[in-house]
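In this supplementary section we document a worked example of the pipeline. Step one takes a protein sequence of length 956 as its only input; no multiple sequence alignment statistics are reported here. Step two produces a three-dimensional model, which step three serialises into structure tokens for compact storage. The input and output of this example are shown verbatim.
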Amino acid sequence: MTSFSKLAIAVKSAVVLGAVAHTGASWAAEEGGQNQEVERIQVTGSKIKRIGELSPTPVTVISGDNLVDAGITNVADLLSEMPNSTVGLSPETTNNSVFANGLNNTDLRGLGTERTLVLVNGRRFVAGAPGSSAVDLNNIATSMIARVEISTGGASAVYGSDAVAGVVNIITKKSFDGLEIDASTSQPTQDGGESYYTSLTFGDEGENSSFIANITYTKNEQLRGDQRDFIRNGVISLDHPDNVDNEDGIPGRTTLDREGSTSLFIYSKNGDFFANDGGHYAFGDDGSIRPFAAEGFLPASSTPGSRNTQYYTGEGDGYSFLEHKYVRTPLERLNASINVNYDLAEDHSMAFEMTYSNTSAYGESSPAFFYLGGNSTDNAFFDDQTKQFFADQGMDTFNAYYLADLFGHRQYDQKRSLIRGALSFEGIINDDWSYDAYITKGHVQSDTTWYGELFEQRFRDAIDAVEIDGNIVCAERNADGEVIGAKAGCSPLNIWGKGLASQEALDYVGTDATRRASIDQTVIAGTVSGYMFELPAGPLAAAFSAEYREEKSSTLPDPAMREGLIFNNQSDALKGEFDVTELAAEFSVPVVVDTFFADEVYFELAYRYMDYSSTGTDNAWKVGFNYVLNDELRFRINRSKSVRAPSISELYQPAAQTFASFDDPCEQGEIDNAGEYRENIERNCRAAGIPEGWAPSNLWKSTNHPGFVVGNTELDNETANDWTIGFIYTPEFVEDLSITVDYWEFDIEEMIVSPEALTVVNGCYEFESLDNPYCDLIERNPETLEIDNFYQKPVNAATSFIAGTDVEINYGLDTSFGQFNFRLVSTYLDERTQNNTGKAEDERSYQGEYHRPRWKARFMTNYYWEDLTVALAANYRHATVLDREWTSEDNDYNDVPSYTEWDLTARYQVLDNLEVRGGVLNVFDRTPPRNPVLYDDGEFYDLDGRTLTVGFNYKF
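The serialised model returned by step three reads:
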């Protein structure tokens, strides 16, 4: 067998993984009968440097040109369109997320962003949000990306935790010679959602050194709901007026879909209320009372005496969420990168990477809103006519719905900065062995500022205005509600009109709030790779790795937030860290070569040992079998165990008080009506010391119960067992055609979930015994036996199973009028089940629902003719349903149609150093389905509409 040092052809410069990651063409040749030295390469999914072998696990590749052709300025946008991936956090999904506005994560297989590992040049990248492990792709400049390799299955044994669903490995450009300016803009045909992109790249390639540097600025403008006609004219679900019961053949809910049907809500900006005469009234701008202006209230629920607080005229005294609805938050990015390579000596080199990123995002939600009960009708700010109105109604107090518009919308301003450095060394030890060692350090600073906030208790104190000695003051009341004086330091606030509040009162109640947060990551790792010894079928290749990683996160909300004084934004400080030491070994074992039944047969083996300071020791492994029948057909099978260690927030989230309403399952009346779990509940309650016939006090039953949302330091690692079985077919009778099919499945055990209060309380007693994940989350008073506290801690209680098939077809066609390349990447989801409690009855299937379509596909056609390149791409989502457990009695809008969006772009080399490009995205102006759940959904559908994009690239 020819050894490494005797193989021919230098392959490194010829690696174009976009064409070979699936087909894996073998690079070995001889020239003039003389063997020449060849350099081994490494592909995602393995740390063994190989000579032209196929990737042992499925790898999908997106080239840098693919990003340009798609009009993409953020790699997250293209990853979200790949069938094997879905959206994590994004500007389309985070407007109301106080700390997450503008983050961009990817989510392989839809298993969660924390189960997708993102690497840069094969190395871990610092997370984007404190307490999380998910990488913010905003921090990686698109102009620096050479290609993106997506590998699924078996990656944990090679890369460690978080790679349960797979790995996204972003390969950056290593060098550049000259100066390049690139700029583009995208303009939707309707206002809103514009984007601007400018990039400057420069570098130099010397004899022993090279470098590339880049500065990129990107600005994505906000897209508001009121800027799209299909959102302004919303689709509302409402109770069906003809429905009687669940057996009449009439759905319980139906839709209202017509122009002007955007819903509004009571919670008037000046306050509104229902009087004793049954009428609905509002305060006018001058403080007077008049009938509430609204028509077309939606029918109330079936609860007797209930009122619906939603209507649909588009005008009136209430509040429309379109006033603050960002369907995409604005995002501004500045990225700076430099990669330096230096040859220390023959066959030994050093590389240095530095990344700086500064991002700014912005979100909005409604003004603070209140249900204000027991307001005195003798408020000092009311005029005589207002007081007379209440007197005529016989009302001493009134309950009001109020939207605190005088403080403005609550606004979330996010400032994030990242700096990351990586120093690496690589080289050849001898003819058969090479090494690679590196250290990376990353730091993220994330600062959030709230505007339009208010001190909730101050607000409630300030609106209780009374007159004492001719002065309007805030009332100090005794336990019986009687006024006993003025509340010290309080400035009375008049909210019952427009422009009636004093600046002193606004300053007393209103405030801004801040939270500072940081993330730190340190990784030190090294790998040696080479050939151990010769076997009859060839050399046994191996890689041995060692890695140490330290992760730290902290948050510091301002004191008012920590004390819970600000409306709806109580938040405690977080400080957590862990470290892990890992050792790994990987082997490629040839078994057969050049026989009548196979060109090649070899095994892939990998094992990783992990020692976490947080969860102790664990391991991951992989066994792969590769069978090359001939030049046309290859088969591969992979079986692996992957792990995910809990994140810092899951482990160390500080306690935050919460309240919930629930019944005690050990109350005798509850036991008597417990249904299928009665036997378990009764046995467990008795084992917990609850006697027969026991019931909690009426006071306990009539109040919300206190509890805490908190991290869990007792969490264990998640475990996933997965299979990949597939083949690659490249028929000789059709030139430039390759077909790749891979069946895959993931079976996750001990999955971490954060249960609701009701799940905690009921779950403790519904299992076979008290030895279950929930009983430790309940505290009972030893004297009264009542539940004093519950804890909503993450627990290792869930299981998840997902299975499907990936199909990729690539075909190239040369003609007399140009070259065509066709590529179809598709995924069929066969099964997706999850059980969040561990009880068999709670397992639920999700495949075929709108967030888990059966089929997803991306089709790409590229046409090349001289200096012209044209790209046509289509993204397809199969028809779905909202809910697999739907019945015809539920609603009449469960079906969701299929969705296809087409993009057409082109590039033309005008001069040797000037390229211009343009195109139309969403050519046919496809909008989301007219469905009350999805009509404004930017997670799965395009909200920009038809968009024009133009740009240029100039090289000096």
